Amino acid sequence: MTTILRVITLVFLTLCISTGYSQTIYHHNVFWGRIALGDKITDRLRTELWFQHRSQSADESSNIFQAPQYNSYWLWFNYHVSDNLKVSLSPFGYFETYTLYTKPSDLERPPVKEFRYTVRLEHEQKFRFFNYSNRYSMEYRVRDLTNTGDYEPNWRFRYMARLEKPIKAAWLKGKNLSLIVYDEVMLQFGKAVRHNPNVFDQNRLYAGFSYGIAKNIKVTPAYLFVIQQRNSGTEFDYVNTLFVVLAFDNLFSQFRKQEQHPKPPQG
Question: Which InterPro entries does the UniProt entry name for this protein (predicted)?
Fold first, then answer.
């Protein structure tokens, strides 16, 4: 549990960074949506394609679908080295990120375009009452921060500690239900951010659940609280987020299995 203590320390330090000196805090209400299409290539290798959209409230409105905040297309390959160790590679990701709203002119600003390449390592431990995961990611980001076609690179390191509690109950009738909490800290460095006051980017606190609504379909709604530092170093965004993921698994392989094992004729 030493890692959990480290994460608690990181969360505490995050709060200290965001409240420890003269600053401006902006509050936001945001929706994050993701459709994940996954399939098996081999018994150990899988692929996923994520379509993501985020929207935000604006003009003092509580409508979290009022204005765009983010669009992305993200390709992943996941390789299971063992039952509890997974290595992932994203050879391509395209993102458009709009400014979090603070004033009317923000709605007129074009999005920042980004290409992203990622490697990720995830280790899961299964205990009697819950599962615990450590996830480490390194991202290489190339962004057009000035909207002039001048793309600048930087690196971002992400660490996540995740707890999952599977629920077993007769009323579930064999369907999967899990409670999930995690904390993720992000640090950035490199050319595009070298003039930023520090390496801290953001922290994400998450609480939600995952429910299998059908054999190969899973929905995961959650609440996410994000603390993100702006380039000035004295401005922070506090983001209240409704995050919903709809995942489709074995998208094509389920039909191949049916073709390989046709049902015997009746009668």
Answer: DUF2490
Output phi, psi for 10, to 5 deg: -65, -40
Domain with 112, as residue range(s), is 2-260
pTM, 2 dp: 0.87
- Give the residue among 6, 5, 11, 1 at the shortest CA–CA distance from 183: 11
267 in a structural domain:
no
Higher pLDDT, 7 or 158: 158
Q: Is the pLDDT of residue 28 over 90?
A: yes
Split into its structural domains, the chain has a count of 1
Name the pLDDT band for 3 (thresholds 50, 70, 90): low
The pLDDT assigned to 11 comes to 58
Residue 183 falls within a domain, yes or no? Answer: yes
Q: Give pLDDT, residue 232.
A: 86
Q: DSSP E strands: which ranges in the chain?
A: 24-40, 45-56, 67-82, 85-97, 112-126, 131-144, 152-167, 177-189, 200-214, 217-229, 235-248
Asked if residue 118 belongs to a domain, the reply is yes
Coil/strand/helix, residue 64: coil
CATH number for the domain including 46? 2.40.160
| CA–CA gap between residue 150 and residue 164 (Å, rounded) | 42
The pLDDT tens digits for 225-262 are: 999 999 888 899 999 999 999 999 988 887 775 555 55
Contact status, residue 68 vs residue 92, Cβ threshold 8 Å: no
The answer to whether 50 touches 76, Cβ cutoff 8 Å, is yes
The confidence score (pLDDT) of residue 257 equals 57
In a domain, 229, yes or no: yes
Element (H, E) at 61: none
